[in-house]
């Protein structure tokens, strides 16, 4: 518990700094939106480019590993959208945010230390492989769901996706990696600087948003999203990874713990970018991060890694 608390505590401190900045009127709602835009359009693409340019992929793709994890993402995403639309009467746009919040894991702040502590060096390859594709895939799907609903033609949707900052960063990173030309010198320094600001700035922006919106989203709406993220998603991945697809046990365990992580900050950044569902995303992140202190122990026990 103390180790998980030490991992999660910096998250809450950075959120609290943003909340305090808003409370004492050091930064207003417009400033928070500006910080969110900076993270979404500049810092996160730099992080994606940095990650993809240095990513090490296997010669033979672990399709069972991808399938176990992303089938789980698809199912909880779809279920969260359905619940938001049918049971809570929310708009389609808000339901996309609910789906993103249910399917997006906190990979860096919580996932890396927890998974490497559980599996050691043996878990590093499957962990970083999934980190490399997790965010780009989810952001691309979320963008497609948003832009496709606007009645755009397929060519227009393709153009929107092609010019999306995350897509551009992903493609540039893969091209640099294929060419054996990762960022170096002053360019690498700039990319690293920008990438390193992603998490702290995003969490401060979320604190600003929490002050504005509060945890006002009814538990009847937030609760199912959190349950899908912390319980249903890892349960689906556990079933697929251990009983359907063939993969090493360490890879299966990494996939389960990855799915069991709380909602990632990018769900809020995406909501802030489209100015919809911010209250739901910020509430889901804050509450799921706190509850993950307990649910993670359950999944460690299921995997035979608990105390």
Structure report:
By secondary structure, the chain is mostly helical. The chain has one domain. 80% of the residues lie in helices and 0% in strands. The protein has 14 helices and no strands. It has helices at 2-23, 29-54, 63-87, 92-103, 107-119, 124-148, 154-162, 165-178, 185-196, 198-213, 219-243, 249-259, 265-274, 278-302. Helix 2 (29-54) runs parallel beside helix 8. The radius of gyration is 19 Å and the shape is globular. It starts with a helix and ends in a 5-residue tail after the last helix. The mean pLDDT is 83.
Please describe the biggest sheet, giving its number of strands, its sense, and whether it closes into a barrel.
none
How many helices? 14
Overall mean confidence score, pLDDT: 83
Radius of gyration: 19 Å
Assembly of the depicted chains: single chain
Question: What portion of residues is helical?
Answer: over 70%
**N to C succession of SSEs:** HHHHHHHHHHHHHH
Number of individual domains: 1
Write the layout of secondary structure elements.
Blueprint: H1 2-23, H2 29-54, H3 63-87, H4 92-103, H5 107-119, H6 124-148, H7 154-162, H8 165-178, H9 185-196, H10 198-213, H11 219-243, H12 249-259, H13 265-274, H14 278-302
In short:
The protein has 307 residues and is mostly helical.
Key terms for this structure?
0% strand; mainly alpha; globular; single chain
């Amino acid at each position: 518990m103390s180790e998980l608390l030490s991992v999660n505590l910096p998250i809450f401190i950075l959120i609290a700094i943003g909340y305090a900045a808003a409370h004492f009127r050091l930064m207003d709602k417009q400033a928070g939106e500006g910080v969110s835009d900076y993270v979404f359009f500049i810092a996160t693409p730099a992080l994606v480019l940095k990650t993809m340019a240095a990513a090490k992929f296997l010669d033979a793709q672990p399709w069972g590993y991808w399938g176990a994890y992303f089938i789980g993402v698809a199912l909880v995403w779809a279920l969260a959208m359905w619940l938001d639309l049918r049971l809570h009467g929310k708009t389609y746009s808000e339901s996309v945010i609910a789906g993103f919040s249910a399917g997006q894991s906190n990979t860096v702040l919580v996932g890396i230390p927890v998974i490497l502590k559980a599996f050691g060096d043996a878990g590093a390859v499957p962990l970083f492989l999934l980190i490399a594709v997790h965010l780009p895939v989810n952001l691309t799907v979320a963008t497609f769901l948003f832009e496709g609903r606007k009645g755009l033609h397929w060519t227009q949707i393709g153009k929107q996706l092609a010019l999306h900052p995350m897509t551009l960063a992903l493609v540039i990173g893969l091209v640099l990696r294929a060419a054996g030309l990762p960022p170096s010198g002053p360019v690498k320094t700039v990319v690293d600087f920008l990438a390193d600001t992603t998490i702290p700035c995003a969490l401060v922006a979320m604190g600003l948003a929490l002050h504005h919106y509060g945890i006002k989203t009814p538990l009847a709406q937030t609760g199912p999203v959190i349950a899908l993220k912390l319980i249903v998603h890892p349960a689906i991945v556990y079933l697929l990874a251990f009983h359907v697809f063939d993969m090493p046990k360490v890879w299966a365990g990494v996939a389960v713990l990855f799915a069991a992580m709380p909602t990632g900050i990018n769900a809020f950044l995406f909501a802030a970018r489209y100015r919809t569902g911010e209250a739901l995303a910020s509430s889901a992140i804050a509450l799921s991060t706190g509850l993950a202190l307990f649910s993670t122990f359950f999944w460690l026990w299921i995997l035979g890694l608990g105390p």
